[in-house]
Amino acid sequence: YFCADLAYYVDKRDRGFDRVVIILGADHHGYVPRMRALVRGLGEDPDQTLEIPIGQMVTARGGKMSKRKGNVLTLDDLIEAVGVDAGRYAMVRSSMDSAVDIDLDLWASKTSDNPVFSVQYAHARIASLLRNAAELSVDRGDVTSVDLSQLGSEREGDLLRALGEFPRVVTAAAELRAPHRVARYLEELAGTYHRFYDDCRILPRGDEEPSPEAAPRLWLCEATRLVLANGLGLLGVSAPDRM
């Protein structure tokens, strides 16, 4: 472990990174002072160039993974079982203070119980809605002139407040090295959007004319889509337009 971590540090510094973050499991806590000593031996200040968060264990298939015991689930295994998006999301969804329990069947499923599927589905649902609006020639106008005073329902207010939290969540996630905050936020946002969608009709039916709420609701949907796409992008997960 030790030599690989040192090589990783040197490689990252050689590639121009100012600060190297190396995540260690709780059972490798003793490596921290040795890593710091080696960094000092390289003539660098570990307080400035090295950060070592301590994470908890990762479990999958019902038992703790261990290289020595030979029951480790490799990244290739994880990707083959659940795909790149679900594998990446599963790893960043949990706080480093808590154990990462990867249920392969759950993360491979195409249901709302799968957190990443639920978030991606919300994005795809909005993209489909916006395509339908264009096909129906529902004009949402310019965002600077749309009448947002039409957004007065409880579900609309919930969604607006959720969207307003995004900058704060991203800032906290970056400062605290806590990407799980973004993932959990996206899940809450997706749920809030689904409730809004179920309760607030957006597009006209049949020969109906678009309602006064149609344009502002479409812009609210577009804002939600952008936040979902940006949040997934920060986690390295795709935001599909169709599912």
Classify the helix fraction into a percent range.
Answer: 40-55%
Q: Name the CATH architecture of the largest domain.
A: Orthogonal Bundle
Here the CATH topology of the largest domain equals: Isoleucyl-tRNA Synthetase, Domain 1
- The topology string of helices and strands comes to HEEHHEEEEHHEHHHHHH
What is the approximate shape?
A: elongated
Q: Which CATH class of the largest domain is shown?
A: Mainly Alpha
- Strand portion, in percent? 5-15%
What is the mean pLDDT?
Answer: 89
CATH superfamily of the largest domain: Isoleucyl-tRNA Synthetase, Domain 1
Please report the total strand number as a whole number: 7
Topology:
Blueprint: H1 2-14, E1 20-21, E2 24-25, H2 31-41, H3 46-49, E3 50-51, E4 54-55, E5 58-60, E6 63-64, H4 75-82, H5 84-92, E7 100-102, H6 104-108, H7 115-135, H8 154-164, H9 166-175, H10 180-199, H11 214-234
Parallel strand pairs: 1-3, 2-4, 5-7
Antiparallel strand pairs: 5-6
Helix pairs in contact: 4-5, 7-10, 7-11, 8-10, 8-11, 9-10, 10-11
Write up what this structure looks like.
- This protein has 243 residues and is mostly helical.
- The protein starts with a helix and ends in a 9-residue tail after the last helix.
- It has 3 domains: 1-55, no CATH class; 57-108, no CATH class; 115-234, Isoleucyl-tRNA Synthetase, Domain 1, CATH 1.10.730.10.
- The protein has helices spanning 2-14, 31-41, 46-49, 75-82, 84-92, 104-108, 115-135, 154-164, 166-175, 180-199, 214-234, and strands at 20-21, 24-25, 50-51, 54-55, 58-60, 63-64, 100-102.
- The model has no long low-confidence stretch (mean pLDDT 89).
- It has 11 helices and 7 strands.
- A hairpin with a 2-residue loop joins β5 (58-60) and β6.
- Helices cover 55% and strands 7% of the residues.
